[in-house]
Amino acid sequence: MLKRLRKKSSKTKHSDSTFDIKALINTLKPSQDFQRFVLESKNGQCWVNYIKTMVNPDYIHRDVFPYLTEHSFDSLEEIKKLLPIENIQITDDVREIQTKLMNGSVIIQMKEHDSKCLILSAVTVETRKVGMPEVEFTVVGPKEAFVESLDTNINLIRKRLPLPQLQVREIESGKISKTRIAILYIDGIANQENINTMLQRISDIEYDNIIDSSYLTQMISDNKNSPFPQMIDTERPDRVSAVLTEGKIAIIVDGSPHALYAPITIVEFFSAFEDYFQIWHTASFFRLTRLFAVAFSVFSTPLYVAILTYHYEMIPMDLMATIISSRSDVPFPPILEVLILEVVIELLREAGARLPVKVGQTIGIVGGIVIGTASVDAGLTSSVLLIIVALAALASFTTPVYQMSNSIRLIRFPFLLFAQLWGLIGIAIIFALMVGHLLNLTSLGRPFIEPIFPPRLQDLKDSFFRMPFNRQAKRPIYQRTEDSMRVNPKRINEKNDIKK
């Protein structure tokens, strides 16, 4: 990594020698939002440069230009003392001048092609207000969601974690976009190896444009070819604050209303943050319900194909009569019948997601009813299969994390293919392959299916079910945190009520 950084720095130094302030201005001149003019003072003049779409015009016309026109000055140092503004910088570094200019700063020169410039920030930030979560909405709990401003998102986290140990490391990535990426962690809790690994992976990104945090998910994951996401995407600052106290590392990208965090395990994808706002009995029941729903979504239609194709003797006689009567007019084999309905469901999902909200809901409901009823009446599919596919689609929506929901939609099709080829044995084969893949999968170098493997009884307290908070005195083992204790286990069970 150090060798690559040295090569990058040597390339930059070489390019700086052939790039000067005159070349920068000539590059910007054709753009109609670039402003360059001479400002007259009492005893001379100076050259002012800025991009009007990036600066606050009220600020520069109220707090900058009047001081320059009404006073005398002979150098940039005198202008710096004259202006009642903080963070004024004088530099001849062309790369820094370019960066500041493109990010909303005003550049002042004493002469037309002076390499030495005065830089003052006058940036205007256009962003939406903090609103309610749309993807991870909860009935109880906070109602704030991230926005597209990096500084605002860090503020939402810092006000929940007012700790000096909360560290923010900022990296600029993207050859063209120059996107700001912030890595957040709590010093003294987060594992230093995880921090170094994350910083190195983000620093090593070679790409021209980083638009959203989802780009990073694909670039820095341990296994980029896996259908399973190895980082969790969230729009809730309260969730990010909670996982930071567990020792995880969060990533926020400027311009993205979502944050990423790692390392994670597969069971976290089926844990809604609302679980922590409810009593542990209810939260545990809902988690187990989600896990059952996901299993049903993946295995229901492959089992239908396998049993009707190879193992129909497993079906009870009373149920067999119902299935035979529902399939009496269907001219297709079970696999083709299932694929027709699965493709229709996927088309309805995509149509509902791409259309406006109100129209998309109508398409999903009306389209599902009309197409489902018509396909049964036309004899293209059986009514039994229609019920199974509809329930499987409904069960897949119970996954709290949208990324995992997409993965579940995808892995159903290999199960269907193997069920058609070898029946239940085919399902067992593809299931074994999937389990083997999950065993080898890691998130930031940590086991992905912990606490199943390696088995850790302590981490089961907040996995498939959620135990009470007083039973979770330690942080998850797999993260190897520097401070493993959340609270003193002796005091957490003490009763503080006044004794009578």
Estimated helix fraction: 40-55%
How are helices and strands ordered from N to C? HHEEHHHEHEEHEEHHEHEEHHHHHHEEH
Summed up, the domain count is 3
Largest sheet: 5 strands, antiparallel
Mean pLDDT across the residues is 88
N→C terminal distance: 66 Å
Give the beta-strand count: 12
- CA-based shape: elongated
Strand order of the largest sheet: 1-2-4-5-3
What ranges have pLDDT less than 50 throughout 5 or more consecutive residues?
Answer: 1-18
Total number of helices: 17
Radius of gyration in whole Å, from Cα?
30 Å
Strand percentage, roughly? Answer: 5-15%
Structural class computed from helices and strand pairing: alpha+beta
Verbal overview:
By secondary structure, this protein is of the alpha+beta class. It folds into 3 domains: 21-121, no CATH class; 150-264, no CATH class; 277-446, no CATH class. It is built from 17 helices and 12 strands. The protein has helices at residues 2-16, 21-28, 57-63, 65-70, 76-82, 94-102, 150-158, 192-203, 213-220, 237-245, 280-309, 317-326, 334-354, 357-377, 383-396, 402-440, 489-492; strands at residues 34-40, 45-51, 89-91, 105-109, 117-121, 166-173, 179-186, 232-234, 249-253, 259-262, 442-443, 446-447.
